[in-house]
Amino acid sequence: MSGPPRGPVLALRYAGFAVVATLANLGAQRAVLALGDREAAAVFAVAMVTGTLVGLVVKYLLDKRWIFYDRTAGVAAQGRQFALYTLMGVATTAIFWVTETAFWLTWRTDAAREAGAVIGLTIGYVTKYLLDRRFVFREGGAA
Q: Which of 33, 44, 59, 99 is most buried by a 10 A CB count?
């Protein structure tokens, strides 16, 4: 590896990975929603949580390797790092969930729900990058 990307390369790569994680998130949500009553609050909540977890893992793996070029090794160290990565995502997840839910409650269509998810995830991912750069991947990460 030649080192962490910078400038436009970093922005394009991060945006691309955000798209991949968003698609994984929405795909997982669709899978859960297909199993139950789309109007049921419990099914909607399970879909959002499942999608969030899938997107979190996908994004962590991509960010760690291709954005921050992190070489943290060992189960304990990586566990702590993933926990911190997850913690940084709590506020950004709230942004995403509130936006997606507001769109769903307002228009009650899958297209509106997914548009709200994309808007919320976009705002959240920009915020999350700044938090991760500062608090999670400090060792030789992309600045």
A: 59
